[in-house]
Structures are given as C-alpha cells and as structure tokens.
C-alpha cells in the first residue's frame, strides 16, 4: 500500500481525439460538465501529492480548466507523436519531484471513481507489485500505478503503446462494470 501523499497523478489530456470529429471531446459536456473535468474529479478527491496534466498547450481552454482544479500543466503540442510522448512528459515532471510512484489516468475516462484509484494504491507494493493496473475482463489498462523504479522504462515508450509492456506483468485490480469506459466518439456521450 502507498499513501496518496507519496504519489503524483499524471492526467493525460493531450490526445488527438480523431474519432470524435472536429470538436475537442475533453471539453464536450457529460451531464453538464466537460468530460475532462469529470475524469479529473476522481484525482482531485484522491488528493495525491501532485496533480500533473499533460495538455496540448499551457493556456488553452482545457489547460485553464485543469489549472483551476490544482493541476500543474505540462504542454505537449506534438499530439501526432502519440500517447507515449505525453506519458514521457508526465513521467519527466514526476521524476523531478520526490514522489515514490506515478498514477497514470486518462482524461477520456470520466467514469473512474476515487474508490477505484484508492484500490490501486492499496494493492501497490514497491517490491512485489511495482506496477498495478486496472482490469476489465482480465485485460490490464489505465488507470495504472507505477513505482519510481520503472520510470526509466516508461520514458522510453514510443507511439501509442504507452506503458503497455509494463502492464502485461502488472498486479490487477478489477473495476466495476462500465467504470473503465472511455469517450472516443460523440455517440459514446449519449450512451451515458
């Protein structure tokens, strides 16, 4: 188990949203709240030592909303480089601090609850479970928690693979049905 005070949360919010169309899916309303803010709420409730949001820029609408929620903003304008470029920027920001682990969350997963994030932290052990992932039907996925010892490996990821290689050996924490759903298309919003 690890205390939230020893964890930095990385909130990846710099994706291309290509399947959503011209609009920014993270600013699209879901129950009258932007998707990204709904997803960020679980991190805010968890109260980790630091909250880092990787956004396409430092001063756009999304960055402004997240900064108001206490997130440090790290810019990744190269959204074409894939998820791994954002992950590297987030890990670099965490590595500069004293936190013992990084909690990776995705801004297009607005149904994840703080209770699930706490379950990930409860399962964590730097020796026996240095990587803990969420699980849907036995498939490891974010949100996921990574010990400082694996930051170097995360920093070398490329493309849209992110930390998938590390997730293959992760300790798994199943999530409630539907909690790990993500928003990819406008129709996904109406499903909720």
From TrEMBL:
Keyword Membrane: no
Domain MobA-like NTP transferase: residue ranges: 9-169
Coiled coil: none
Keyword terms: Magnesium
Name of the protein this chain belongs to: Nucleotidyltransferase family protein
Species lineage: Bacteria, Pseudomonadati, Pseudomonadota, Alphaproteobacteria, Sphingomonadales
